[in-house]
């Protein structure tokens, strides 16, 4: 793994792709791979930096950080990939980067990082390689393409409310959270995007949701051209759609066609497996095998909702943040169950402390994951593409869809969600929010 790290950090062929609260991602352009690196709080003093270096040395020698990354990768490969589908997710492998290599990456991306993300630095020993869904898989390289590769990154958020929350919450949790963010200044303007509309399966509602994302992307929609980000919350020029469709038509007209194309992509069955619905799992209302259906099915593992899950946590006490991951992996290894959703339900019914909360925490991953729809024009549809080509008035496009951001959530996610919901309810009681 060390040689991989040396090659990656010295290649100078990677580019800043983005980051969330926990990870920074750079793209290895020539290899069509991304490098995902775990972040940690940046020390605020010289003593703090000395402690970080000492901790790095201890963890490097003991292998703890690599062990944590191996645990997270095992969760990704053995839990989330079977839930979402191997056809929608990437293989992954761990790489080891030294502190000088991490510093080289930090210096290279410094100007691209948002101000509100710069309070964190990169953690030693926590890096992994995945396929880069901003490009089509190599198996399509022989096709006669026209123009550039475009990829649309979506963070669809929560499309499912458990039964108890449907009774308690007056509307979509994401929409209510928008009101709180606006009131507290965390966003400058409210988006009208509603995840429940996107997950509805109704073409009109889905297109409306996507139009709202185009109008106010926040952190939930980005567009890439050949791996370089060209549309986001700061850059909202719809001229990118003229480039995508290779048309001089009115961008607003192209926006309608763009949302229609995305909506169709999200309902395509790209699994290529013909796998049927598990007879023991309740079906979703979405077409079998489509990416939104797989994500929604994983979200539906949460049948209790945050408040009920929090009350159970308070009664049982809290263990380590990631202890449940090893226990879930061990419990899965001890049973032969072809359906991962059924397996997780059976594990939770064992009522062991950590295992009881596994369905909620796995669902939380699915509620916060990202997907990428990759598009490239071809002269015409081809039977060889097996349903991966969609026609539009502006030409035919080869389609690929990938899902990522599928690492385990810590146990204190339950506490975080409970605090968030309390803040939302307090905000909703204020007249200016209700208006």
Short overview:
By secondary structure, this protein is α+β, with helices and mostly antiparallel strands. Helices cover 43% and strands 18% of the residues. The chain has a 6-stranded antiparallel sheet with strand order 8-7-6-9-11-10.
Considering the chains and any ligands shown, give keywords for the structure:
alpha+beta; five-stranded antiparallel β-sheet; 17 helices; 43% helix; globular
**Which H/E pattern describes the elements?**
HEEEHHEHEEHHHHEEHHHHHHHEEEHH
Give the overall pLDDT as a whole number. 87
Amount of beta strand: 15-25%
Helical segment tally?
17
Task: Report Rg.
Answer: 22 Å
Shape: globular
The total beta strand count reads 11
Class from secondary-structure proportions: alpha+beta
What distance lies between the first and last C-alpha atoms, to the nearest angstrom?
A: 56 Å
Uncertain residue segments? 430-435
Main pleated-sheet profile = 6 strands, antiparallel
The helix content, as a percent range, equals: 40-55%
Q: How are strands sequenced across the largest beta sheet?
A: 8-7-6-9-11-10
């Amino acid at each position: 793994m060390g040689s991989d790290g040396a090659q990656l950090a010295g290649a100078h062929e990677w580019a800043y792709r983005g980051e969330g609260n926990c990870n920074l991602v750079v793209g290895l352009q020539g290899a069509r791979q991304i490098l995902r690196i775990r972040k940690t709080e940046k020390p605020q003093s010289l003593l703090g930096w000395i402690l970080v270096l000492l901790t790095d040395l201890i963890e490097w020698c003991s292998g703890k950080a690599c062990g944590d990354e191996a645990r997270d990768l095992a969760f990704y490969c053995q839990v989330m990939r079977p839930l979402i589908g191997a056809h929608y997710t990437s293989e992954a492998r761990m790489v080891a980067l030294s502190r000088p290599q991490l510093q080289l990456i930090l210096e290279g991306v410094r100007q691209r990082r948002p101000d509100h993300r710069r309070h964190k630095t990169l953690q030693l020993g926590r890096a992994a390689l995945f396929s880069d869904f901003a490009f089509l898989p190599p198996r399509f390289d022989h096709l006669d393409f026209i123009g550039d590769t475009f990829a649309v990154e979506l963070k669809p958020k929560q499309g499912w409310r458990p039964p108890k929350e449907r009774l308690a919450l007056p509307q979509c949790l994401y929409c209510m959270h928008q009101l709180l963010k606006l009131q507290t200044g965390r966003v400058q303007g409210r988006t009208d995007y509603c995840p429940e509309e996107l997950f509805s399966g109704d073409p009109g509602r889905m297109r409306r949701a996507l139009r709202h994302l185009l109008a106010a992307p926040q952190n939930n929609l980005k567009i890439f051209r050949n791996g370089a980000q060209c549309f986001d919350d700061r850059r909202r020029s719809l001229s990118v759609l003229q480039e995508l469709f290779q048309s001089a038509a009115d961008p607003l007209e192209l926006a309608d066609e763009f949302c229609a194309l995305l909506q169709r992509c999200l309902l395509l069955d790209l699994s290529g497996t013909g796998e049927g619905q598990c007879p023991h799992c309740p079906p979703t209302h979405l077409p079998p095998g489509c990416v939104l259906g797989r994500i929604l099915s994983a979200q539906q593992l949460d049948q209790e909702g945050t408040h009920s899950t929090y009350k159970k946590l308070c009664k049982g006490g809290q263990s380590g943040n990631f202890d449940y991951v090893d226990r879930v992996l061990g419990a899965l290894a001890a049973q032969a169950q072809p359906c991962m959703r059924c397996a997780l339900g059976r594990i939770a019914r064992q009522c062991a402390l950590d295992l009881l909360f596994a369905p909620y925490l796995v669902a939380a991953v699915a509620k916060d994951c990202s997907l990428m729809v990759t598009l490239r024009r071809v002269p015409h549809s081809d039977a060889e593409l097996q349903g991966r080509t969609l026609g539009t008035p502006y030409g035919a496009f080869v389609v690929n869809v990938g899902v990522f951001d599928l690492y385990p959530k810590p146990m204190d996610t339950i506490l975080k969600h409970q605090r968030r919901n309390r803040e939302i309810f307090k905000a909703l009681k204020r007249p200016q929010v209700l208006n």
